[in-house]
Amino acid sequence: MAIRERMSGNEAVATAMRQINPDVMGAFPITPSTEIPEYFSQFMADGLVDTQFVPVESEHSAMSVCIGASAAGARAVTATSSAGLAYMWELLYVAASSRLPMTMAVANRALTGPISIGNDHSDSMGARDSGWIQIYAESNQEVYDNFIQGVTITEATRIPVMICQDGFITSHGVSNIELLEDEKVREYIGEYEPEDYLLNSDHPLAVGPYGTAPYYMEVKRQQAQAMKDAMPVILEAAEKYGKITGRNYGFFEEYRMEDAEVAVVVIGSSAGTGKAAVDRMREEGKKAGLIKLRVFRPFPRIPLAEAMCRVKAVAIMDKAESFSNSGGPLFSEARSALYDLPQRPLAINYIYGLGGRDITVEDFDRIYDELFAIEKSGDPGDVYRYIGVRDSRDGEGQER
Amino acid sequence: MKKIRAKEINEKITWQDITPGAEIYEPATSRYVQTGDWRVMRPEFIEDKCKQCLLCVPFCPDSSIPVKDGRRGDFDFAHCKGCGICVRVCPFDAIDFVKEDR
Questions:
Q1: B22 contacts A215? CB cut-off 8 A
Q2: What is the pLDDT of residues A341-388, one digit of tens each?
Q3: What is the pLDDT of residues A187-198, one digit of tens each?
């Protein structure tokens, strides 16, 4: 029998970590993920876990602890946000390129500046090319489920995994949740038995050697292949998890997409707001749908394109700027995925929700209205847009 | 799974065959790699002056001074990087330091 509880996303992640009972946690507190090591420290004080907790002086060191632990053969976890993730940057690449399994909880928060503790995805989106698997959650339930699956995925692929949730929105928002029993979690993740590890004195091992020009590119190509090969592993982990929980996950969730004419593609908690708008549209007989992307790395290029191509117009939502003057990171990749299709929808981009700016059902209503207008006119206009920003041109009928 | 040996990792290896994360599954493999080719200065062993005190041996950061039967021989120039530490520590001026003329 699953355990019915109510808790914040941070407590849910910390609870998943307690159930996983990792060998090592290296962590440094940063808003809004601070509660994760806080809760976990309480579990340690209560004798509920056997973990070696390393309270480091910075995130650079927290990631270094995880790298050392993972190379030594330990199951390692950490948690961070925003500037903390940014401070881990060079080590993110070390972990990924050294093919060291570990699971990191990210409570997404804006990067400075201006200084902000509000939620957006600029921290993890900035790290999107570091070679980590990235899985995003809409709710507390999802971040809990994703974190447990993350352990299985990282150990099967030897690619570190980032489990992201929206800072404050789900990290601090308390809601109902269904937990697995501890033994079921442990049965699901199994014992961690790495093939090679530094503490195995019978088989000496060198980790992270210098890669001169004749070798570096072969190592990167193999790393790229590992990311490609992670696709079925992610689905297998989800299928196995679905069997014990009844909660099913894929690369993305399709909401009322069967007969949709227009759709929004969105990551994270804002999907819930978008679904409310879809329901309102449907009540008015308008065929709106929504795709919530769960797995951003590896990018599910082909299945996502196939899902998007069934509509006439799609709005791709980015909770991060990339200052490319061509749209946000999700737009760039999702629209690029459409290019290979013989028939593709018109696609527009909205930058939204930066630094904790709320996006409302009414905002999504406007987006869907715009999509229906584009479907009718066949003209997407300027595809790179903002929503939810004050604009002195408001009311002048101009594109924003 | 059969592990690839360090000797089999060379500049012909494909991306499929290289080890994950460039891991190496055995110790002391630097002996297979020529690391002395960036040398600018070269130590020269003057055997006549050498008293075989062997002080240079533990100071060498690249283990490039071979010792056999308690006596040092000439430098291992495949691995000596020409740092000159041996020159500094030798109490008998038995190591000269000259510009590499390759």
A1: yes
A2: 999 999 999 999 999 999 999 999 999 999 999 999 999 999 999 999
A3: 999 999 999 999
Q: Does B26 sit within 8 Å of A196, measured CB to CB?
A: no
Inter-chain contact A226–B1, Cβ cutoff 8 Å?
Answer: no
Record the tokens describing residue A116, joined without a space: 């902000």
Name the minimum distance, in Å, from the CA of A102 to any CA of chain B: 15
Answer whether A266's CB lies under 8 Å from A289's CB. no
Judge whether A3-245 and A252-394 match in fold.
yes
Q: Does A46 touch chain B (CB under 8 A)?
A: no
A209 touches B at CB < 8 Å: yes
Cα distance between residue A212 and residue A214, in whole Å? 6
Domain A3-245 CATH assignment equals 3.40.50.970? yes
Reported confidence tier of residue B88, pLDDT bands at 50, 70, 90: very high
Q: Where are the domains positioned within chain B?
A: 34-102
Please name the CATH architecture into which domain A252-394 falls: 3-Layer(aba) Sandwich (3.40)
Three-state SS string across A229-296, please? HHHHHHHHHHHHHHHHHCCCCCCEEEECCCCCCEEEEEECCHHHHHHHHHHHHHHCCCCEEEEEECEE
Give pLDDT tens digits for A271-289. 999 999 999 999 999 999 9
- Closest chain A C-alpha to B37 CA, distance in angstroms: 14
pLDDT class for B32, splitting at 50, 70, 90? confident
**Residue A298: cis peptide before it, omega within 30 degrees of 0:** yes
Listed by number, the residues of chain B in 12-71 with a beta carbon closer than 8 Å to a beta carbon of chain A are 13-16, 18, 20-27, 29
CA angle at A141 for the pair A152 and A109, rounded to the nearest 5°: 90
How many CA atoms, within 13 angstroms, populate the side-chain half-sphere of residue A318? 29
| Predicted pLDDT at B37 | 87
Tokens linked to B94? 């038995």
User: What tokens does A33 get?
Assistant: 């993920």
Whether chain B has a CB inside 8 Å of the CB on A158: the answer is yes
Torsion of Cα atoms, A43 then A44 then A45 then A50, to 10° = 130
Q: Whole-model pTM above 0.95?
A: no
pLDDT value at A400 more than 80: no
Dihedral sign, Cα of residue A329, residue A334, residue A336, residue A337: positive
| Confidence tier at A329 by pLDDT (50, 70, 90) | very high
* Tokens read off for A124: 């993890």
Calculate mean pLDDT across residues A313-317: 98
**What CATH number was assigned to the domain covering residues B34-102?**
3.30.70.20
Gyration radius of chain B over CA positions: 17
Taking the mean position of all CA atoms in its chain, how far away is CA A97? 19
